[in-house]
Amino acid sequence: MRSAEFLNNLFSLDGKVAVVIGGTGELCGAMAEGLASAGAEVVIVGRNEAKASARITRIETDGGRAWFHAAEATHKAEVEKLLAAVLQRAGRVDILVNGAGVNSPTPFFEIAEEEFDRIVQVNLKGVFFGCQVFGRHLVDAGHGGSIINIGSMSGVVPLSRVFTYSATKSAVHNLSLNLAREWAPHRVRVNVLVPGFFPAEQNRKILKPERVTSIMGHTPMARFGDARELIGATLLLASDNAASFITGEELIVDGGFHAMTI
Q: Which residues are catalytic?
């Protein structure tokens, strides 16, 4: 078997349908492009159609297939409508990426209840509903599938200045491992993709110069990640062939940040 054929058999997503919640953002948008390049029909889910259109244009220019569905991930009824729309248009769903997220650098004693509730709603409740609605479908459909929840380094090691974000991401890690155990008999794999420090919309407001210096000093590769560097890990976790025995995994892509102590 030639190398191209071998890699295609291992990682091809031809005939698969991938739903990327948060696909209008920078990180999940790059992941959506990667899934489309591997052959999947990609549904980009978010609230900003203009951002989605730009991403879809890039996907289609490269020969891929993608379309946009507007939905608020924190409302279960909208997630249910999303699933129904995907099944009506694409006929199936195989891969779900739960990537919507918000952050805030508010000092702990100053965190207002409204801010706390907003971050919990998006980061945890949105993932919960995505897993609940799409997970039930994947279990009932009986053909297996892959759910990739976007975690955080703050769910692995405690990070300063992002208290509510850290709490919600830790909960996402815990939820994912619990669901991996529950759904393994149904061949529905649930994993956490854990980005290190990637400049994106939700964290730019906390990346002050002194913060950047601290991050670089704790990252052996001494740089930020590029969004496209998440694609390889995404394709691994999405592929039923390459990752058939991978579930309950926290796959860290962080330039060595978590390996650094002193």
A: 165
